[in-house]
Structure formats: structure tokens, C-alpha cells
Amino acid sequence: MAVPGSRACSWAAVAKAVCERRLAEGAGGSPSPEPASLRAALYVHWPYCEKRCSYCNFNKYIPRGLQEAAMRSCLVTEAQTLLRLSGVHRVESVFFGGGTPSLASPHTVAAVLEAVSQATHLPADSEVTLEANPTSAPGSKLAAFGAAGVNRLSIGLQSLDDHELQLLGRTHSARDALRTLAEARRLFPGRVSVDLMLGLPAQQVGPWVRQLRELLHHCDDHLSLYQLTLERGTALFTQVQQGTLPAPDPELAAEMYQQGRAMLREAGFRQYEVSNFARNGALSTHNWTYWQCGQYLGIGPGAHGRFIPQGAGGHSREARIQTLEPDNWMKEVMLFGHGTRRRVPLSKLELLEEVLAMGLRTDVGVTHQHWQQFEPQLTLWDVFGASKEVKELLDQGLLLLDHRGLRCSWNGLAVLDSLLLTLLPQLQEAWHQTSPSPVPEG
């Protein structure tokens, strides 16, 4: 937990008081006066897990003699460095992901948050989320994370069927998951999210729907439905390839998704993104930054970021990824102040492709105002208004293009990937038609 008397306690104490006041008032986050180029979200990657789940190919490691103090120091240093390089004036949310960040000590979380608050403006009511697994997050530790400054939890529940949990390689049981969820809701009322997976090998629609119905009796105001993706290099992929497990049935998975989203809508949840559902306004503001193509800084081994390095004189957004392996990442941070392994400047077209693909994942879609922030000349009407292929999608009721902007219908949101196969080439064609050709030299 946060060390009594440490500087890390000061920000957390203020943040806790402000969040309690704002929750009592029913208020959301404070509006930001800063321009978008001076605001960012911050993602912190904790790369360690108790064990490797059978389906997961994330950048994670089983710790062998972990020196957490060294990891903590490097996370703080990299946060300070990247905040300086970005020139960001305000961090609007922080997300501790992994790996299993609930394995870290609350002191590490507190140290990172205090470093951020000293380097830039971190409003006391900023959303600070921690991913937690049931077996690594007893109630006393969750409370300590709250004292460290965490005000939202995302629990990797994944299933309420013990056989499925064993198949996935999870270390908890359904009973463990529900016990942790109840404790989390007591400590963080209205600010607990849970994940539920669908489309597992041999999984059937009826039993999965019953799991979701059971979960609705226990969950808080945010729930994510994720379809299993078989990733090469995972144990589950190998089992399916070798025939020891049946391949997931995509048609059954689609039916689970459709029934699940309908059930959640009936229960008062808004499907505000392809996989995410919230009621009582409990949207994830951190993830909303991703879907709105806002800037975000990624710190920790393998973390990804998207920001303009204004503090270093940069003028265009870069896609960044940090060094993957923790020991090598720490060496680079100690030598250079950060462990950025790769920097790729994004072209204007690449950025617009991200604005389109990410924005259409939400129920709001891409508004005209939002599009103009990234492209003031070429409008959504210019790009899509005269396309026969897009008109077919509009006529089929999968897309809407009107005075608000471009967005998916309820049915369209379920088949977004297929819609993008039409929309992205249309954007590329319109861009190349309107962009001036390079003038040959000489």
C-alpha cells in the first residue's frame, strides 16, 4: 500500500475527496480547457502475471526474482520523460493494464500517479483504472489500491463456468470471481467493469446466455463482451490446430453476441462501443480517448502510444512502441530515460483512417465536428456522399450519413469489420483525388 507520509499519498488523498464529492453530486469529469494537442491519456503496462493464460498473446512474463523497486523507478522515469517529450499539459485518465497489474504493490501505483501529477496537470477527478484478476486482488489490497489513487476497476472475470475457466488457464473459480466483484463494488460503487468472453471452443449459446443472465444479478454499471480470438503461439491455438479441441464456431459466437447485446439493452445498458456496454453514464473515459483518436502515452514494456512529440520539436503524430522484454526495457530507461523501441510518423491519411475505423466502433460514430478537427477541408459528405457502394450500405440500414455525421446502425455495429472493407478504400480514393500530386524537381 502507499507508504504513510510519502508524497504519493498527497495526490491520492485529494483525488479521493474530489471523486467522492463529484459522485455525490452526480457530476461527470471536469471539462478541459486545453486544446487536444495538449491533452492525453496515459497507459501503464505491468508485464507480469502469475501464469500465462491459454488464450493470451499479450506482452507478459512470469516473474523470476522480480525487483519491484527497480520496475517502479523505471515506470516513474519513463512517465516523466514521455510527458516532457509530448509537451502534454493535462493527463485526463490513467489505465494500469497488463499483464496483471493487481500483482503490483499499491505503492508502485501511487508512485506513478504522483510522478504524473508533479510533471503535468492530473485533475483530482481523473479516471484511474486498474485491471485486476480475482486471485490477485483480495479486498484488503483493493482498498489499498483505492488509497493509492485508483478509482475504477476492470475485473478479468471472463467466465462463470469453472470448466471454461480451466480451459482458459485462469487461476480463479467462478466463486472467486463473484466474491471479488462484490468486494470491488463495495469499495468502488458504480465504477467496476467486468469482462465476459464468448465464442470459446465447444461453447453453446444457451449456457453462455445463462452465464450473462447470472452476471447481470451481480455486475456493476459497465460490462465488456469479448469474442475469443485464437492467437498463434498460444496453448489454445495449438490445441485447436492439433485437433484436441474443436475450433470455435463463428456462427454460434455471432448468435451469442447478438443475444448478449439485446439482453444488455433490455437491462438498461447502452452499447457505446462494439464490445462495451454501460449504464448510468459509466463509460470508460480512458478507452473513449482511444476511440476518439485522442493522444495517449504508453509507458512500460511493450506499451503503445500515439502522440505528437511537441516537447522535442515534433509537429506530427507518431505511433510508438516501447521495448518488449522487461529487463532490456529497464536498461534502456536507465540509460536514456525511456525505452521507446520504435517511432513511426503517421501520415495525414493514416491518421484519418484511424479516425474513421476507431470512431465507427462507437454508437456516436464520426461526427462532422470531430472529423473537421482532423481534416477541415475534405468533409464526410465529400468522401462518402456520392459513393454507390456507401449508398448500398445506407439503403441496407447498416450505416447512417446525415447532419450529425457517419455512424453505424444497431445492425451495422455488429458487422463493422465488413463495412470498413468498403469505407476505408473509399476514403483512400477520395484522399488521393483531392491531394495535390508531388511536383517533380528540376
What does this structure look like?
The structure is a single chain. This protein has helices at residues 8-25, 68-86, 106-119, 139-148, 162-167, 174-187, 205-216, 235-242, 250-266, 285-291, 326-336, 348-359, 368-374, 380-384, 388-395, 410-413, 416-434, and strands at residues 39-46, 90-98, 127-132, 152-158, 192-198, 222-227, 270-273, 276-278, 296-299, 304-307, 318-322, 340-345, 366-367, 399-401, 405-408. Helix 3 links the parallel strand 2 (90-98) and strand 3. The longest helix is centred in the N-terminal third of the chain and has 19 residues, at 68-86. The strands form three sheets. It has a nine-stranded mixed sheet with strand order 7-8-6-5-4-3-2-1-9, with helices on both faces. Strands 10-11-12 form a three-stranded antiparallel sheet, with no helix packed on it. It starts with 7 loop residues before the first helix and ends in an 8-residue tail after the last helix. The protein is 43% helix and 18% strand. It contains 17 helices and 15 strands. The model is unreliable at 1-9 and 22-30 (pLDDT under 50). With 442 residues, it is α/β, with parallel strands linked by helices. The radius of gyration is 22 Å and the shape is globular. Helix 1 (8-25) packs across helix 3 (106-119) and helix 4 runs parallel beside helix 6 (174-187).
